């Protein structure tokens, strides 16, 4: 069952006949992350490692285009499944070198995958819950066997696992906390210089795609807030960013010839309620919170109309409309605070003297809501939700935290509620799997890869397994319909907004950008490995 035919190095999407001009330094601001730490560990969560680590420096075996569904060969030239979906074989590309000149072989792939087994904290996609063994019959072939049919693993292993050089990482004693300050990868760029306020990547002279990249340097300056970076974007000092901007039309109007943006919905912004903690383990509390939130207000006031309210199933529309169960096609979120209050009263809560609900033991219905300091749109969203919940007798304290603290709190479960992102993939299964699979969570105090709300439910796990064990579209859709029902009826996590690909750029200095007419990659500079596709295609004006 071959899924990807052998191929040569992927070609540029630059229009035929166009003149390629080499050189230039591209300035990128993925987000307002504050001062940088020299941390290039490709196994860390996306917002813990420096942008460019994944994609620009380290690469995957395959490239999945989530906009078009296309799968391209990358470090692997082909892959194939056995008929029982228990064996996945990759044929690797010959002639690839690490940036230190050492050859890339199947030893590196086997070592990387086994490293995730030896250090489970690195296994962010929980691939070793189904993976049984990894072997390399020859230097350019890798054979992966699974405990059961595991079709979705081609995305996690082929498209989301970044391969590291064995000859370097086999000497790392603690890869979980390794800063990897001098990264060696197969990607198109290498580290040139580092400063807490600016780091620079330069062209990799050993890169395996002849003649690429066209750009000489990638520059990543540090900013502490959307507002400070937004100012430089308006002034034309930034070429490419993934910032929330309060007025994109104004940005375009400053230079309508060159300034552009494209905001396709790719995932869902969630309100994570820690279901391992009281009172979020109570369904009526989760339902009341959801009913009180004015998502239209979040969209208009918090996101300036750029991020619309999501579908209650968590299905990303319009991209995945074909997966939406018929019974939910007309469903939408509604604000119903009277019903929210009735639900709380029915669960035994009563109003205290200060207007805040208390339970039978006198515990106030009050909690904190975490957000990253400087992420101004989400800070506004949290403030709006606090007002909405106060209206039904729930007290919320918004906690704006440094990014590293915020991510740690989510992973370790040391939070009450938090606004945050979800993972995406080639179908809705991948969002549900990351969000709901009990294999992706952990007890409070231990690191959870992605199921931060600590949802653990046998029915959910059975539905996820049903999808994973089949390639039959009917069987897979039955599983997705069941997962949609859980999202709608159980509210394991509360959808707030569609997460669009914040993507603003200027064609004044570089051309070849993806857009709605040429969606060769998901364009945000913090989407991996799509950022690599963009950096390989762009060239100087």
Automatic annotation (TrEMBL):
Cross-referenced CDD domains: PBP2_TmCBP_oligosaccharides_like
SUPFAM superfamilies listed in its UniProt record: Periplasmic binding protein-like II (SSF53850)
GO biological process: peptide transport
Any GO MF annotation of the entry: peptide transmembrane transporter activity
Sorted UniProt keywords: Signal, Transport
Assigned GO CC terms: ATP-binding cassette (ABC) transporter complex; periplasmic space
Name the record gives this protein: Solute-binding protein family 5 domain-containing protein
């Amino acid at each position: 069952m071959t899924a990807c035919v052998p191929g040569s190095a992927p070609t540029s999407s630059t229009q035929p006949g166009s003149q390629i001009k080499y050189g230039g330094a591209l300035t990128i601001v993925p987000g307002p992350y504050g001062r940088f730490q020299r941390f290039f560990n490709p196994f860390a969560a996306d917002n813990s490692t420096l942008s460019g680590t994944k994609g620009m420096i380290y690469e995957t075996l395959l490239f999945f285009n989530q906009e078009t569904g296309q799968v391209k060969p990358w470090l692997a030239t082909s892959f194939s499944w056995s008929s029982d979906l228990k064996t996945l074989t990759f044929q690797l590309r010959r002639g690839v070198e690490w940036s230190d000149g050492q050859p890339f072989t199947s030893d590196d792939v086997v070592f990387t995958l086994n490293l995730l087994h030896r250090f489970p904290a690195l296994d962010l996609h929980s691939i070793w819950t189904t993976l049984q063994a990894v072997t390399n019959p020859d230097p350019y072939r890798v054979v992966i066997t699974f405990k059961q049919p595991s079709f979705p693993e081609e995305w996690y292993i082929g498209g989301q696992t970044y391969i590291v050089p064995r000859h370097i990482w086999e000497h790392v004693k603690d890869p979980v906390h390794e800063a990897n300050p001098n990264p060696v990868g197969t990607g198109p760029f290498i580290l040139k210089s580092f400063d807490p306020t600016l780091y620079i990547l330069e062209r990799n002279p050993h890169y395996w795609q002849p003649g690429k990249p066209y750009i000489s340097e990638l520059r990543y300056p540090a900013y502490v807030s959307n507002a400070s970076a937004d100012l430089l974007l308006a002034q034309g000092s930034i070429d490419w960013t993934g910032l929330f901007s309060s007025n994109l039309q104004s940005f375009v109007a400053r230079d309508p010839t060159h300034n552009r943006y494209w905001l396709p919905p790719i995932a869902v912004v969630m309100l994570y309620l820690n279901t391992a903690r009281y009172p979020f383990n109570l369904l009526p509390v989760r339902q009341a919170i959801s009913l009180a939130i004015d998502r239209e207000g979040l969209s208009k006031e918090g996101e300036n109309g750029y991020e619309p309210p999501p579908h209650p199933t968590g299905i990303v529309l319009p991209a995945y409309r074909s997966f939406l169960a018929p019974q939910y096609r007309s469903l939408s979120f509604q604000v119903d605070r009277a019903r929210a209050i009735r639900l709380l009263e029915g669960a035994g809560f009563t109003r205290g003297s200060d207007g805040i609900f208390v339970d039978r033991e006198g515990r106030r219905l009050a909690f904190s809501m975490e957000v990253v300091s400087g992420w101004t749109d989400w800070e506004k969203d949290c403030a709006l939700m606090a007002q909405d919940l106060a209206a039904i007798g729930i007290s919320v304290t918004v906690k704006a935290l440094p990014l590293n603290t915020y991510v740690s709190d989510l992973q370790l479960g040391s939070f009450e509620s938090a606004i945050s992102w979800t993972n995406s993939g080639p179908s809705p299964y991948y969002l549900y799997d990351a969000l709901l699979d009990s294999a992706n969570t952990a007890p409070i105090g231990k690191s959870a890869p992605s199921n931060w709300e600590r949802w653990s439910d046998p029915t959910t796990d059975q539905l996820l397994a049903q999808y994973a064990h089949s390639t039959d579209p009917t069987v897979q859709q039955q599983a997705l319909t069941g997962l949609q029902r859980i999202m709608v009826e159980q509210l394991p996590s509360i959808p707030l907004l569609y997460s669009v690909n914040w993507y603003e750029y200027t064609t004044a200095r570089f051309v070849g950008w993806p857009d709605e007419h040429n969606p060769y990659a998901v364009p945000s500079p913090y989407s991996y490995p799509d950022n690599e596709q963009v950096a390989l295609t762009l060239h100087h004006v």
